[in-house]
Amino acid sequence: MPGHALLELESFLPYRLSVLSNTLSQAIARVYEKRFDLSVTEWRTMAVLGYRTDISAREVAERTAMDKVAISRAVARLMKKGLIERNTSRHDKRQSMLRLSDEGWKIYDQVVPLAIDHEKRLLSHLDVEEREWLARILDTLWKAELDEAMR
Amino acid sequence: MPGHALLELESFLPYRLSVLSNTLSQAIARVYEKRFDLSVTEWRTMAVLGYRTDISAREVAERTAMDKVAISRAVARLMKKGLIERNTSRHDKRQSMLRLSDEGWKIYDQVVPLAIDHEKRLLSHLDVEEREWLARILDTLWKAELDEAMR
DNA sequence: TCATTTTAGTTACAATTGAAACCACCCGCA
DNA sequence: TGCGGGTGGTTTCAATTGTAACTAAAATGA
To answer: Domain A9-150: which topology?
Structure first.
């Protein structure tokens, strides 16, 4: 292939990040999908509500970087399963305040340790220095890219 | 919320990787989707064929970490657009040998610089030392996780 | 050799997703 | 007070995707 541009996928950063992160997410997702019948969107919604209670769907969307349609559907399913509760906000009748129900908290409390374990297992491949670098680097990229993405 | 497990999504590694990598992929994807009418799967297929020519769909699937149905569909679309060519292998009539067509190469040669630019722009937020650490760390995680994922 | 199992790739169908339209409500302002 | 534009959230419809079943061709092995 003479005279052609060359791109080696395996060493291309965005590609590697994508494959790695998908493999990772799927690995955890499989666990709570089978065990608790939760989709990724549903779990993320619950995760947000686990440490920010009584927030609106819009705010969930912001914090999870998912779009509002996805959240709307996740919320609907979680309501049907009785894992969250919704009260329309008194100040703005368009918004609803979401929170985990008792049932929701029960599941949340089971999934969180699994998630944390998973992260630990992942980090166990790295030494302390590597972990620090990784955290810092992700931080930098996160800020730079996300700012840019939002124009 | 007393007595409950705590998970801070924003500092949870798998989550951060996922959001970051999605933002990233979408940023490039938007460009070649609009400009060349290529889906992510299609582009990845082409990318592989750009530096490994005359390989089978199975091999493309392996190298892109996508599943065979996705590849089959991408290949069908790329064929229809005339961007790749397919010849059934003489040794094994189940397999087909795939390669970029002249048209395909033309597009490939336009997209590659865009992708590389994108990576450069991304890396520009990091200094040399950080880049080296990142590469090493991804390498480690890549090997550890992917091995594990394949059992 | 020929029956069994495995593999490459496609197809069919259901489930998931995304884009755009939509509804109800809020806000600013005349 | 009421109009125009914007926002939170849902719905609809079409496109994309995943799962499983399927076809055809190898490979295995008695």
So the answer is: Arc Repressor Mutant, subunit A (1.10.10)
